[in-house]
Design goal:
single chain, two-stranded antiparallel sheet, mainly beta, 140 residues, 12 strands
């Protein structure tokens, strides 16, 4: 039986837009797929229908440091806080800024980039709002 190396394994390519918390959470699978960079950058497409995450240098515009313990501590998460950026993305895609959306993406090996559609594959997370629970909804 052939052994599969960590680089060959499939990673869950996911991020969340958390409107109520004004942040973007980048999944650990994204960082693994990108080769465990120290910094990543986010770019939104010209027509605002997708987000890209890719490795960058620490002095690049929109560079965000990947937490050192992200892949070794299961409690560690990567969050990018920016009310203006998060709400801007959400409003331009008719998303409710009080909700949390999970974006499924794909890793593009040739470009070493993870791309997330803001139109397809967007799921609204279950959320507790003032003591009542809202159900999961597919936005497609």
């Amino acid at each position: 039986m052939d052994k599969v190396t960590a680089k060959e394994k499939s990673h869950v390519i996911e991020m969340t837009l958390q409107g109520a918390r004004n942040c973007i959470s980048v999944g650990k699978g994204v960082i693994r797929a990108l080769g465990e960079p120290s910094h990543v950058s986010l770019k939104i497409s010209d027509n605002h229908d997708s987000l890209s995450v890719f490795p960058c240098d620490e002095d690049d515009v929109m560079a965000f440091r990947v937490p050192v313990k992200l892949l070794t501590d299961h409690h560690c998460v990567m969050k990018i806080n920016s009310k203006r950026f998060v709400h801007g993305i959400m409003r331009s895609n008719n998303m409710d800024i009080t909700r949390t959306y999970t974006l499924s993406g794909e890793y593009i090996k040739d470009m070493n980039t993870c791309v997330f559609s803001l139109v397809d594959g967007v799921t609204m997370r279950t959320l507790i709002v003032r003591g009542r629970q809202t159900s999961d909804v597919q936005d497609n």
